[in-house]
Specification:
The structure holds 2 protein chains of 2 kinds. Chain A has a single domain, classed as MetI-like fold (Orthogonal Bundle), CATH 1.10.3720.10. Helices cover 80% and strands 1% of the residues of chain A. Chain A has 12 helices and 2 strands, in the order ααββαααααααααα. In chain A, a hairpin with a 4-residue loop joins strand 1 (55-56) and strand 2. The longest helix of chain A is centred in the first third of the chain and has 42 residues, at 2-43. Chain B is mainly α. Chain B is 71% helix and 0% strand. In chain B, helix 1 crosses helix 11 (246-277). The chains are: A mainly alpha, B mainly alpha. At the A-B interface, helix 1, helix 3, helix 4, helix 5 and helix 6 of A face helix 1, helix 3, helix 4, helix 5 and helix 6 of B.
């Protein structure tokens, strides 16, 4: 008996350390990136790093502004495309779709989540880049197709599964009684959905959108392949952009040769981490609250 | 007709339309990539390593990348499982369950799930510099392990949570310790779900490019030791599409098809295995 107790104790210690390691990984990453970006922070003040637009690594000027703007442009365009499509799709799946349709569509969307990002990038090169190139002349603009819009469309596709699966789940947690109450008062199904269900699910839907935003913010390879990579803040969707992750990916070779350059790139990674961290913690806290409300109620 | 019914119809059309766009974009992706890649797909693509002048459009295949990706994926998945399984089991009610520590751990893992893979890549690069490892299979495995870890723990945790508590009580009632219950009852009960979780993480790991960009290097040879640099399929796609030669770009499409097939196979296998392992489920 004593042996079995001892085994139990030992095993739970091991499990504890595995858990602590997993939980602290995000802290390790943050500390690692921070220590490495300290050398650039000591040379240049934070606001100059973030808001200066002169990126001349060889002269020791590391302004990340064009890259931050590039990331924001691409991500916002992606969200503008993705949000209406995802919300309508998830409402359809949760409220309207017949069982058979759901049975086909949901696994398909899960599949979308598992496709490697380089494959999205290839798809972008093959279809989206020529597409935006041929659309642009309608607005009197010429572009080679490598622009913010192409990046946004590809990114939108990549966040479909994130937003749809979470918001669909949230919509389903809205208690059935709420719908019935609304229908009993003579509302049409759409009115019940619009006024009761989506309103009840709103915090969860917002959380889903935030998580989609965070995912889009850090996506690297697919965007890098279609967005043009010109280090200048874009001023229209048909301008090329150079997002932060692409900057890191394209210049990793310099990380080893020029110490300051490397430090600036790792600082860029730290910026990505901090933004994604804030967004996902916010979204998860909303989701936890949503879950609790309906579990109790 | 009633205005409200018109509104209902209008939105229903919109909803069905968006569902079509979402699902259609997936089919478009498959169609475009496979149509482009299939003609360049040949037996030599998957059985040969690049020969001299391969990147100018001459003989060879991407066996180096296929083997490399499998080594990276399997290595990382095994390592991640070794850490993830105990962690997921520790999140049971019987250990730390509903405590604040468990909530924080879950939150932290959810955040990690969303951390961009390029950040893992940068962090992996720092570790490798610190440990003095050059770009190698080992470096890639370390980074992918970290990348897969949160995915696997969270997916396993969801499965473990669904084990009925009474089942464990029955085991405790006949005198089993927590460890014995966990190994003999819980692990058996979660088998179908665990297979899905592990293969999900494997698929994520094998398809990721940004995290291994700095950490694995790239080579035309097959890996012989953990410290050799190693090729991988996602990077093979990326590098080949970047060359100016149409023949080589064709091979990028073909490599993407191979990668897609692997990812699809994983998803199918996980569904089949999950169904098969259901027979071990106690109830």
């Amino acid at each position: 008996m004593r042996l079995r107790r001892l085994k139990d104790l030992l095993a739970s210690r091991l499990m504890l350390s595995a858990t602590v390691f997993s939980a602290l990984l995000v802290v390790f990453i943050a500390i690692g990136l921070f220590l490495k970006s300290r050398s650039i922070l000591s040379i240049q003040p934070l606001n100059k790093l973030l808001f200066s637009s002169s990126w001349h690594p060889l002269n020791g000027e590391f302004g990340l502004y064009p890259f931050i703007m590039g990331t924001l442009w691409v991500t916002v365009v992606a969200m503008i495309i993705a949000i209406p499509l995802c919300l309508l799709t998830s409402i359809y799946l949760a409220e309207y779709a017949p069982k058979r349709v759901r049975g086909v569509v949901k696994p398909t969307i899960d599949l979308l989540a598992g496709i490697p990002s380089v494959v999205y990038g290839l798809f972008g090169l093959l279809l989206i880049v020529p597409l935006t190139q041929s659309i642009a002349p309608i607005f009197g603009i010429t572009t080679n197709g490598y622009n913010v819009l192409s990046g946004g469309i590809v990114l939108a596709m990549m966040v479909f599964p994130v937003i749809i699966s979470i918001s669909e789940e949230v919509i389903e947690t809205v208690p059935y009684g709420m719908r019935e109450a609304s229908l009993a008062l003579g509302a049409t199904k759409w009115q019940a959905t619009k006024l009761v269900v989506t309103r009840g699910a709103l915090p969860g839907i917002i959380a889903a959108i935030i998580l989609g935003f965070a995912r889009a913010f850090g996506e690297t390879m697919a965007v890098l392949m279609v967005v043009g990579n010109v280090a200048k803040a874009p001023s229209s969707v048909f301008d090329p952009a150079y997002p932060l992750p692409a900057l890191i990916a394209n210049n990793y070779g310099e990380m080893m040769s020029v110490p300051q350059y490397g430090s600036a790139l790792l600082f860029a990674a730290l910026v990505l981490l901090v933004v994604v961290f804030l967004f996902s913690v916010g979204a998860r806290l909303i989701l936890v609250r949503v879950e609790r409300r309906y579990r109790v109620g | 007709m009633d205005k409200r019914i018109l509104e209902e119809r209008f939105f229903k059309v919109l909803m069905i339309g968006s569902t079509f766009i979402v699902v259609g974009s997936l089919f478009a992706l498959f169609l475009v990539v496979v149509l482009k890649g299939a003609p360049a797909l040949s037996l030599s693509m998957i059985t040969q390593t690049p020969k001299g002048g391969y990147y100018l459009g001459k003989e060879g295949g991407v066996l180096n990348a296929i083997v490399g990706s499998l080594c990276l994926g399997i290595g990382a998945t095994v390592l991640a499982l070794i850490i993830a399984l105990p962690a997921a089991l520790f999140l049971q009610k019987d250990y730390i369950g509903g405590s604040r520590f468990a909530t924080v751990t879950r939150l932290s893992l959810d955040v990690l799930w969303g951390v961009p893979s390029i950040v893992y890549g940068a962090f992996g690069f720092i570790i490798m510099v610190y440990l003095g490892i050059r770009a190698s299979l080992l470096g890639g495995i370390i980074v992918l392990t970290l990348l897969e870890l949160p995915i696997m723990v969270r997916a396993l945790d969801e499965v473990v949570r669904r084990v009925p508590q009474e089942l464990k009580y029955e085991s405790y009632a006949i005198g089993a310790t927590r460890l014995e219950t966990t190994i003999k009852i819980v692990c058996r009960q979660i088998l179908p779900g665990a297979v899905t979780a592990v293969l999900l993480a494997f698929g994520r790991g094998i398809g990721d490019a940004a995290s291994i960009l700095f950490t694995t290097g790239y080579t035309d040879r097959l890996p012989h030791s953990l410290l050799d640099p190693v090729a991988s399929l996602p990077l093979a796609v990326f590098f080949q599409i970047g060359t100016p030669f149409p023949e080589v770009q064709q091979r990028a499409y073909a490599s993407a098809v191979i990668l897609l097939v692997i990812v699809l196979l994983l998803s199918i296998i996980s569904r089949l295995l999950a169904r098969r392992f259901t027979k071990y489920v106690i109830r």
